Amino acid sequence: xxxxxxxxxxxxxxxxxxxxxxxxxxxxxxxxxxxxxxxxxxxxxxxxxxxxxxxxxxxxxxxxxxxxxxxxxxxxxxxxxxxxxxxxxxxxxxxxxxxxxxxxxxxxxxxxxxxxxxxxxxxxxxxxxxxxxxxxxxx
Length: 139
Ligand code: CMP
Prior knowledge:
Its EC number is 2.7.4.6. It is found in: Cytoplasm. This is Nucleoside diphosphate kinase. Homotetramer. By secondary structure, the chain is α+β, with helices and mostly antiparallel strands. The protein has one domain: Nucleoside diphosphate kinase-like domain (Alpha-Beta Plaits), CATH 3.30.70. Helix content is 41%, strand content 20%. It has seven helices and four strands. The chain starts with a strand and ends in an 8-residue tail after the last helix. It binds adenosine-3',5'-cyclic-monophosphate. Residues 53, 58, 62, 92, 110-111, 113, 116 line the site of adenosine-3',5'-cyclic-monophosphate.
């Protein structure tokens, strides 16, 4: 089934000028970038986006990292896009990520892990709506 998922290229990656390199991995995997925008997240935006992690010990650091420098928010489209992108990203902790994945190639640590991708189709819809209107997504 053709799906859409939400992606963020995180500050650790934009800082190192890796947007194009990461997009190349995404496109090589057959996912299409159907919306994309560079944005410097506000604290309010980052807190809302990561609300589900509010009680976790790393929440404060996560919000600080995500607002430190610009990110690139994206909508990716393709067959089974949610699961496919999670495969392409690799494990949250880059130490556990498979060869060829984005996190294996580029991530610095579990916090500075270069990319975010939705974990379910339901969350993808919620996350996409936080950053894009339907007319900004061009499939
Ligand atoms: P992401 O997919 O963006 O979702 C939550 C983020 O929290 C995760 O990627 C990590 O970058 C970050 N994080 C920091 N520390 C941890 C941790 N101990 N366990 C899980 N996620 C963590």
